[in-house]
Amino acid sequence: MALIKTDDDQDIDGNTAYGGYYSAGSVEIDDELTRVGPGTPCGEYLRRYWHPVALAQDLGELPLPVRVLGEDLVLFRNGSGQAGLVHKNCPHRRASLEFGICEDRGIRCCYHGWLFDVDGTILEIPCEREDNEVARKVQATTRLGAYPVHEMNGLVFAYMGPPDARPEFPVYDICEMEGLEIRPYKAPFDCNWMQVLDAILDPVHTTFLHSQVSRQQFSEGMSELGELKFYERDDMRFMGTNTRRVGDNVWVRLNELILPNFTQAGAAFATDGTKSRYFGRSAFTRWVVPIDDTHCIAYAWANFGERGDPPEYNTDLGAELIEQGEPLIRPYEERQRHPADVEAVEGMGPITEHARENLLPCDRGISLFRRRVRRLIHELRDGKEPPQPTGLAEGTIPTYGSDTVLRLPNENGDEHAFLREANDRVMSLKLGSEAMPPRERDSHIIEGLKQLESGGLG
Predict the structure, then answer these.
(1) Residue among 221, 196, 203 nearest 360 (CA)
(2) Are the beta carbons of 138 and 125 closer than 8 angstroms?
(3) What is 50-159's CATH number?
(4) Residue 295, CA distances (Å) to 288, 292, 344, 347, 351 in order
(5) Domain extents for the chain?
(6) Which of 106, 364, 375, 394 has its Cβ near the most Cβ atoms within 10 Å?
(7) Residue pLDDT, tens place only, 105-157
């Protein structure tokens, strides 16, 4: 029975038939997890990490305005090819540097010609004489706000936190995997970042939203709802598995999240559960980055090849289908008939009201994730810096987003117990090898999966 608090603090039964009157209105937003601007608890937490802020292909000869974590910024490339990310407004008279001129040494303000380096240093104040002491003092003591950037595989990353807390840039195993062809892409969402990120730890939504409700948006077989299990590892890694039966095969699909916003899953179209697949890797390597409190954007690499998705999907449209099963831009009626991720998460409102949710055991991954983020926010407030992905391993960081399909007929009768045992055996093999070097680890897992398939669960 749900009880609703009224303005005069009386409890009203919210489980009354036609009782919409009692539950109308809104409740308080969970500001601690959803507000991301400078100085907010979650904004300070997120600023301790590297985030993608643009596609490299979008950065040409002109400055690129970007908004990240509630800040208006300008991304540019100088004449030597070095990228810079700076505050939008010139510290002289606040003109916007989106109209600046990219030069060999930096970016020049269009209004009075001040020239800035990628680190914010004022290189020139041409509107004043060189012997002007006031101008020289301003040049020596003033900087344009700037953030360090790092480019990798077509994505431009930035670190927006305190300079003395700047972490090492993390490199994940998927970035160095042989035989994968990657395609950078972006997908915007008009809602808070957390309701987009929640979906990665929600294996059930794939069965319904992407399969049963409207039409099969990904490969066949995902419509089957299997056995769910959630994992919380280290201080920042979460996983959820959905283990299904497809004929004589067992399909273990694994979604993962590495804090604060790195996600991977299995393939979108390469696997349907009908053929054996040994540690097939994620369709995407993806970060959900807050633009501000009510907008976010997913920057990602779509992965193609023998262990990724089929190469025929290596197109702009293919990347959108991998992201959510439907094109990102569609007529409203089509969105109603065939909703996908954008419709589901944006339909919750600009910032969803966590207090109105009714979480169930199938939502355990979401509960674990939110609880951990809240704890790390509190620890940062108390002076303890949050853990970094680079602390998960020396060198390249192992990841797990994957599909495993093994021919494992069930001759024991109890299908639920059989699927749980199969999942545990597969996950034990994957998690037990995380200390190995990437290539050795992959070979060990693949060989172990083949042995499990040939020997069965006996």
Answers:
(1) 203
(2) yes
(3) 2.102.10.10
(4) 10, 5, 15, 13, 9
(5) 50-159, 173-455
(6) 106
(7) 999 999 999 999 999 999 999 988 888 888 889 889 999 999 999 999 999 99
